[in-house]
């Protein structure tokens, strides 16, 4: 097992996180080495794993980070982030009540993963449930996804905190060349307080998607 980022490991060309729980969240596999359990992390099921496999250089997630995760779905990627931040916390926001049932199940054996039913367009509705964050991770696949990130950063992101956002070109504009869409989104983020540190294409795992790793040069309004 080679630790390539905090609590993220590579073994025989596969990616793993150190398992915080032995309960399965999806169809991941567990392996045990010297009394420690690790969970396989599938790049076809998680865009963050795809970005790492595709050579992401900087993963801004430390073991004690407070993370606001927008678009948690059933908890696949959030559960791996929860493995990484073993001394931190993941606030996992999802707006579909149907999917929320699965998310609750995924959180049930994880002391650091807090499920929140809410709309990422309305941060004031969950502001009393979320602390200031070191990182906002967003994967909502909505046309206004960058605007949603900016809005949540103003409420919750610490100065010099980080954001990771999955940009799906087809959710924004199906008629445009994806490269053009990514450029526009980058410009928008950079005009609104972020510096894009890294842009990583996640093909072949997801088509017309990139992940941006960003630093927030401003800070939440009441920091
Ligand atoms: C692509 S999936 C996320 C997959 C997840 N990030 C993972 O890797 O395991 C997008 C999710 O965002 C949720 N979503 C979309 N718009 C949202 C919003 N405005 N507020 C909260 N969740 C939203 C959807 O219901 C869906 O579950």
Number of spatially distinct domains: 1
Q: Please write the string of helix (H) and strand (E) elements.
A: EEEEEHEHEHEEHEHHEE
CATH architecture: 3-Layer(aba) Sandwich
* General shape: globular
Question: Averaged pLDDT, please?
Answer: 96
Portion of residues in beta strands equals: 25-35%
Task: Describe the protein in words.
The chain is of the alpha/beta class. It has one domain (43-216): Vaccinia Virus protein VP39 (Rossmann fold, 3-Layer(aba) Sandwich). Helix content is 26%, strand content 32%. It contains 6 helices and 12 strands. The protein has helices spanning 47-53, 76-84, 97-107, 145-156, 169-172, 178-191; strands at residues 2-5, 8-11, 14-18, 30-33, 36-40, 66-70, 89-94, 113-117, 133-138, 157-168, 194-201, 209-216. A 7-stranded mixed β-sheet has the order 8-7-6-9-10-12-11, sandwiched between helices. A 5-stranded antiparallel β-sheet has the order 1-2-3-5-4. Strand 4 and strand 5 (36-40) form a beta hairpin. It is globular. The relative contact order is 0.14. Bound molecules: S-adenosylmethionine. S-adenosylmethionine is lined by residues 46-47, 70-71, 73, 76-77, 93-96, 99, 119-121, 139-142.
Offer a few descriptive terms.
single chain, globular, 223 residues, seven-stranded mixed beta sheet, binds S-adenosylmethionine, five-stranded antiparallel beta sheet, 32% strand, Rossmann fold, alpha/beta
Produce a short descriptive summary.
This protein has 223 residues and is an alpha/beta fold. It has six helices and twelve strands.
Secondary structure blueprint with pairings:
Layout: E1 2-5, E2 8-11, E3 14-18, E4 30-33, E5 36-40, H1 47-53, E6 66-70, H2 76-84, E7 89-94, H3 97-107, E8 113-117, E9 133-138, H4 145-156, E10 157-168, H5 169-172, H6 178-191, E11 194-201, E12 209-216
Parallel strand pairs: 6-7, 6-9, 7-8, 9-10
Antiparallel strand pairs: 1-2, 2-3, 3-5, 4-5, 10-12, 11-12
